[in-house]
Design brief:
Elements: E1 2-13, E2 16-27, E3 31-35, H1 42-49, E4 57-62, E5 65-66, H2 71-76, E6 78-81, H3 93-101, H4 108-121, H5 137-148, E7 155-159, H6 167-182, E8 186-191, H7 194-200, E9 203-208, E10 211-216, H8 218-225, H9 229-237, E11 241-242, E12 250-251
Parallel strand pairs: 3-8, 3-9, 6-7, 7-8
Antiparallel strand pairs: 1-2, 1-4, 4-5, 9-10, 11-12
Helix pairs in contact: 3-4, 8-9
Length: 252
């Protein structure tokens, strides 16, 4: 069953077309990835999905609801882990979760219990009262993941969830996302990491210059084009990978 449907989706910013007439469907319980270089339109698509950016034309339906007509209902059922760390640096890890729960009108007693459970889930129980300034980058990303789950979302949107993390922290995030998928949470992510897409995604949409070039499973793409996902991406877009000198599989 499709939980998200987009048709003719287009977004212009002044005289720049960021997303150019794209169609896609996302099934309930799958992990769907958007791959592409900076400027491909991935983040704009994500921001339209969680009702922050209004399409110039075309439609998106989430849970069968049009995003322009039902933004509040849709937002209440979605969790978002942004690319940028936007935690409140003046608050503790626990307080960040409790304060964020207010946006969903979750009672304090409930939010406090949920916050502690989420801190345990991401391995930050001992950091509950620690100020954000004292947390490592990996811990802050883990806290952002916990925050995105405060409302028990049916859809979790993750914009480059592991960018900047060391390999150990990255694998920790992957394990949590796999666990959420097994619990039938629909995951939608953008990523620059080929290994991340191969490990997590049931299907990926490869984007460039606001358009979707293809949508398929990583396995099918690799079998069809003969090579790993990095090779497929290069073949379809002509874009090189950055960070190769460090052994990374990042899109440039």
């Amino acid at each position: 069953m499709d939980i998200i449907t987009a048709r003719g989706l287009t977004k212009d910013f002044n005289h720049t077309r960021a997303v150019d007439n794209i169609d896609f469907d996302i099934k309930k319980g799958e992990c769907f990835g958007f791959l592409g270089p900076n400027g491909a339109g991935k983040t704009t698509v994500m921001r339209m999905l969680y009702c922050v950016v209004v399409p110039t034309s075309g439609t998106i339906k989430v849970f069968g609801l049009d995003i322009e007509d039902n933004p509040s209902i849709i937002k209440s059922r979605i969790g978002v882990m942004p690319q940028d760390d936007n935690l409140d640096i003046e608050l503790s890890a626990l307080k960040n979760l409790i304060v964020y729960a207010r946006y969903f009108e979750i009672p304090y007693r409930t939010s406090r219990k949920t916050a502690y459970n989420l801190l345990e889930y991401v391995g930050l129980t001992e950091k509950a009262d620690e100020n954000i300034k004292n947390l490592s980058g990996g811990m802050q990303r883990a806290l952002l993941l916990a925050r995105s789950l405060i409302n028990s979302p049916e859809i979790l949107i993750l914009d480059e969830p592991t960018t900047g993390l060391d390999p150990h922290s990255r694998h920790n995030v992957w394990n949590k996302l796999k666990d959420l998928k097994e619990k039938n949470t629909t995951l939608i992510l953008t990523t620059h990491y080929m290994e991340e897409a191969e490990r997590l995604c049931d299907r990926v949409a490869i984007m460039d210059r606001g358009r979707i070039i293809t949508i398929d499973s990583p396995k099918n793409l690799m079998e069809t084009h003969g090579g790993n996902l990095e090779y497929v991406y290069l073949k379809l877009t002509g874009k090189r990978l950055k960070g190769k000198e460090n052994g990374e599989n990042n899109l440039s």
